[in-house]
Amino acid sequence: MGMGRGDLTDAEWERLRPFLPVSNGRCGRWRNHRQVINGILHRVRTGVQWRDLPDRFGPWKTVYERHRLWAGNGTWERLLQLVQAAADAAGEIDWDISVDSTIVRAHQHAAGARTEPPPPASKGDDGVEHQDETPWQSLVARLAEVVLEVRAWAVRAAGSPASST
């Protein structure tokens, strides 16, 4: 199965895999974590509706439910912390290990990662910068994007219609 643009690379996956929650057997064997995570990353990056996720990620409901579960029980936040700590231990993080700075960094390439194809690499900035990153760095940035979205979700949920006057 081919990898789409924006899917986890093998190197990123190898670093993330040890930290992933193990299926508790109750909900059957969890569908391929990598496929589902790629689906979640795709949605965070493109802003596509869940039900419009490409088929290669499997049933959209599976992807959505996993994301909702992990957002609700703190799994995404924990994954980000664990991966940051591991990246730091590997000496591969060249910015402050505060989620805020990570998010600033993640947002720089989130901004360039919408649906249009990347412009020719002249600015030496966006796309190129991502290729120079180590798998640890790009993985932290990806997780930060998901966590940022999860937090924004929580804020929106907390401040539901009543408060928005």
UniProtKB/TrEMBL annotation:
Residues 8-79 form the Insertion element IS402-like domain. Pfam families: DUF4096 (PF13340). Signal peptide: none annotated. InterPro entries: IS402-like_dom, Transposase_6_like. Residues 123-133 have a biased composition (Basic and acidic residues). It comes from the Bacteria. Residues 108-134 are annotated as: Disordered. This is Insertion element IS402-like domain-containing protein. The lineage of its organism: Bacteria, Bacillati, Actinomycetota, Actinomycetes, Kitasatosporales.
